[in-house]
Amino acid sequence: MVNAVWSKPESERAGTPLLVMLHGYGADEQTMVRHFGAMPSGFTCVALRGGFEMDESYGWFLLDYFLNNDFAQVIAAANQVYAWLDTEAAKYGFSSVSLLGHSQGMAMASTLLRLRQEAFTAVVGLSGFVLNSELLTVLEPLGTKVPFFWGRDVDDLVINPDAVDYTEEWLQENTVLSKAQYSGMGHGIGAAELVDASSFLTVQVPGSFKPS
């Protein structure tokens, strides 16, 4: 079972654009819930909890210091999200589905995109990376280039330079990339970054802007 926190009550979700928000390694869904208010108000936002249990937190799959991973865990995590998403989409008939991920959540969001790019309208990646996987590259370059916003701090010490280089190369080749760099936020999520991500989603996702 996937733990999920929604921004809207069940009665208000049908037919809206959905924004699935994915937390980073060693965090939980509440770290994304706090950013619901920064997203365009037309969205139904949902923050999911990763299924990889840590001491008192969660991830999506095991990572080491160099961001290496177990591919079987990656695919299992992706399939869990797909199964949850398919069920909820059938229930509510969302007008579209977009993704937002922070840190490992960006790796998860981009993996979901790689495996099912036709399912997503737009993707936002914050202070994260794209998995360097030979098995995933068999499916690439992607046939559909989805709009992708990538924001990061140039002084982020968590994502190593090789991962940054691969991420930029992959995004340039496989998405319609909007790239933004910030200072002073490290590996976190900055206020200016959220404003830019919200503006990006407003432009890319029909129905995401709802006049107050």
Automatic annotation (TrEMBL):
Phospholipase/carboxylesterase/thioesterase domain mapped to chain residues: 12-202
Matching SUPFAM superfamilies: alpha/beta-Hydrolases (SSF53474)
Pfam families: Abhydrolase_2
InterPro entries associated with the record: AB_hydrolase_fold, LYPA1-2/EST-like, PLipase/COase/thioEstase
Protein's UniProt keywords contain Hydrolase: yes
Keyword terms of this UniProt record: Hydrolase
Domain of life per record: Bacteria
A GO molecular function held by the record: hydrolase activity
Similarity comment: family membership: Belongs to the AB hydrolase superfamily. AB hydrolase 2 family.
Protein's name in the database: Phospholipase/carboxylesterase
Lineage: Bacteria, Bacillati, Actinomycetota, Actinomycetes, Micrococcales
